[in-house]
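worker-03 picked up job from queue 'complexes'. Input manifest follows; three sequence lines, order preserved.
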Amino acid sequence: MLNGFLLVSLILLSLAILGSMFRLLAGPSIPDRIAALDTIGILLLAMIAVIGMLNGTAAYLDIILVIGILTFIGTTAFARYMERGVVLESGDDQTHR
Amino acid sequence: MLVLKRSWAVIKLFIIFNRELFLSSIAVLLHIVRPRLAIRPGIVEMKTELKSSFEITLLSCLICLTPGTLTLDVSNDGETLYIHAMDIKDAEELKEQIKSTFEKAIMEVTRAC
Amino acid sequence: MNPETIRHIVEFVIGIVVLLGALVSVISVFGIIRLPDVYLRSHAATKSATLGVLLILLGGFLYFWIFEHHISIKLLLGIVFVFITSPVAGHLNARAAYRSGVSLWKGSVRDDLKEDLKRERQESRGV
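worker-03 finished. Artifact:
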């Protein structure tokens, strides 16, 4: 019975990823695409938790942490790039602004 | 005694936050599935009484976490928060609600004495 | 009650929690597709990150705790991590959008930030 629930939620989650893929391709501005990418990362994290339950193994749980961290770093880097035009600032840039 | 009081305040903040998260999630979900969009979004400025940067960070994180409100910007002196709200029925009411729930609970955590 | 019945009930509860999380995610992605501007979409995105993923990871935590007898610190850490990072990411994204000039939806009723941002920019240019 649990497997049925888990399969249905896997299908729902993949539909959700498909939906955010639409926004990623069609988004009129760059922040739209960044938000869609962030959502895809978070949904992937949830999907891996469901797959881990479906297989009854705790081996996939490391991937959850790694994907969470990578999604956050990616979003932060994109947002900084949008705002300042650079991802990593060196110290000399401060004096010119 | 102080530790006890402070940890009770933390638990209270957690409970208030969970309640707000669920209530406003359901409100936003209902807005999304409604056939015609009946929302009036807008940006509201809010003066906060919190002083230290830790308190302001905590407040803006909590505002971002509850769906329906999003901190857009903080002024340089850290006194004004600009909040994007999904449905403004009454701006004063919204501000009053944030002040009476989150701000009060955060003050109880950081300024217990 | 015999253990078999209890096991069925627990399976049912975990299944409902996970399914509810997936449903919340789907509805909020529907919001991402449907809503008219970046800031409103960002509301929907932050919600799927918090409530949907919270429910699914909570279901996973209960599953590993009850059936595998293994309290998973990694899942708890994942919940805490999502809770800390998703508002920060939403705030950064919306702020970058506003500062780079993405306009609000035409139905917006109020914009207090516009004047203040203009004044701040003039001051920083003058100095």
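worker-03 released lock.
The longest helix of chain C spans residues 3-34.
Residues 3-126 of chain C form one domain.
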